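Hey, quick one: can you model this chain's 3D structure?
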Amino acid sequence: MRPGRGEVLHFSEDPSITRFVPHVAASARQPAAYVWAVDAERAPSYWFPRQCPRVLAWARPDSDPRDVERVIGPGGGERVHAVEHRWLERMRCVELYAYRLPAQHFVPFTEPEPAAAAGAGPEPSAHVSTRTVRPLGPPERVGDLFDLHAATGIQLRVLPELAAFWAAVSSSTLGFSGIRLRNAGIAPVGHARGLGGHERSPGHSAAGPQPRVRGHRLR
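Sure thing. Here's the predicted structure for all 219 residues.
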């Protein structure tokens, strides 16, 4: 699931959004209100439940081959995504949707994600818009997240905890990113109550989804 030409994607567990309004997220580190989206290169970073903590690493042209072997591993491809065991059931059952948005209304986010400790150049982590944006069409169901990783050759690594892997990745020459790491070590909503990790998405009721206007950040 990646955007086509002239598109960016916004991933959500809410299938009822009719327009995206610029919004300052509670976790935002900047005061500006944005609509958030990602391009084709960054789309795989969001093939997860929204609240799922994950560490992402990928080989760059200037990455040290020793770091690639140490972090990604022999035969592991060019990219690895790591999650915790406790999030596997949530990944299995989540219903994730992709909204296609017109790329012409977006610009690369000026705050780069950490690319590498060895002084590699910044890599934009997302694309943002300061205007209200309407989707190009109805949301598309992303489907099985495990199958999506397998089909694109992205290694999905399952670990008891993310801390040690994050330390290894963030001290390497690989490109890397950490998303929702504040949730690391925390079970998904409902998991402890035996609900199989299911969490009702915002905007849903017992009667089904209601049309919504959404303003929120991807990260």
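One thing worth noting: The chain has one domain: 7-191.
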